[in-house]
Amino acid sequence: MERVFPGWTIMEGAGGGYIAFRAVLVPLGGGLSNVRCGATLAELYVHLEQEGCPPAMRASRRQLGGKASSARSRR
User: Fold this and answer.
1) Structural domain boundaries, residue 34
2) What string of DSSP letters covers 9-74?
3) CA distance linking residue 71 with residue 11, whole number of Å
4) Strand partners of residue 20
5) Average per-residue pLDDT for the chain
6) Does the residue 3 lie in any domain?
7) Count of domains in the chain?
8) Separation CA 24–CA 42 (nearest Å)
9) Are 48 and 5 in contact (CB under 8 A)?
10) Is residue 46, in this structure, part of any structural domain at all?
């Protein structure tokens, strides 16, 4: 399953895994990455999807261990 992430170039890493880098770099300090890595394409896709989330949502996912919460899970 190959997915497309506009603005990113994906390549195989020299030591294994996969690397994605932005075609146009973003400024530091904005909460976005210019380079993301993953051991598998599936893992890399998850990381790239996180780059598309608003910063507040990324922060909440990190606090929850990468899992989205629902109203039920907080009760």
Assistant:
1) 8-65
2) EEEE-TTSSEEEEESSPPPTTSS--SEEEESSHHHHHHHHHHHTS-HHHHHHHHHTTT----TGGG
3) 39
4) 10, 36
5) 76
6) no
7) 1
8) 23
9) yes
10) yes
66 in Cβ contact with 60 (< 8 Å): no
Does residue 17 form part of some domain? Answer: yes
In a domain, 31, yes or no: yes
Segment 34-52, tens digit of pLDDT: 999 999 999 999 999 988 7
Spatial distance between the Cα atoms of 20 and 13, rounded to a whole number of angstroms: 9
Global confidence as pTM:
0.65
- Cβ burial of 14 (10 Å; 0-12, 13-18, 19+) is exposed
Residue type, 42: A
* 47 phi and psi angles, rounded to 5 deg: -65, -40
AA identity, residue 53: C
Encode burial over 21-37: b for 16+ CB neighbours within 10 A, e otherwise. Answer: ebeeeeeeeeebeeebe
